[in-house]
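task queued by scheduler; priority normal; single chain, no ligands, no partner chains; default sampling; output format set to structure tokens
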Amino acid sequence: MSDWVHCNKCCIKYGGQTSFFLVECGHIFCQRCVETIRTTRKCVLCNKSGNILPLNKDLEQSVLDFFLPMENIFRKGSEIYRFQLQQRTLLYQKLMDKYNYAKKEYMNCSTNNKHLQKENQMLRSMLRAGKNSQRFVTSTPVSQPSLSEGNVTFQNASLLSSIPAATRTPSAKMYPGYSKRSHLLSSGSSHGPSPAQRVPFGRQMEMPMVHRNPSMPTMRSLEELRRSGKSQ
């Protein structure tokens, strides 16, 4: 025991043939002073009740630690501190390794995500461009009728087949000026239809030949008589 152990009532030091006792409240008494506590079951200093334990090597280690020398306690505490510090350092290193690995994986995932977003945006733009170009494309394109050899021909056979047979051949009523010509003919007018009225849409106008006019000989004879009169 340490030299500081003494009876808290009579101040006798620990040692020799005298036994010492530890009360649960934390006070120490010698053999003589502890007799009064055993009868009353209360500490004579703090008046608290508690168990009485003899100070010997049979005490529990948790109680004996209070009687160890300070240098031993400091040495033991230093060993305990180093051991705990080593374990904390290992734990910190492991956590840092996991953190660095998670950070690296996060950066890789972030970079891949940006590439995928750019690729997705490019594909969406291409898809929109494809849809816009298909709006101007039809499955069966319709071509305008062409004029050849005075007849109307259709480049698209599918459009021609969809027209009823009764309306494929243009009638005279479909040409411009038909109603006016009919009125003039019915009223007895001598004026014939104009060349624009006589030629239907899509047909070439044939120019009349000069030698086909029967009045041309008479006109030539009158012109010769005028010339002969002027010469006389």
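post-processing summary
- Helices lie at 34-40, 61-64, 70-134, 157-162, 178-186, 195-198, 216-231.
- The CA atoms of residues 40 and 49 lie 9 Å apart.
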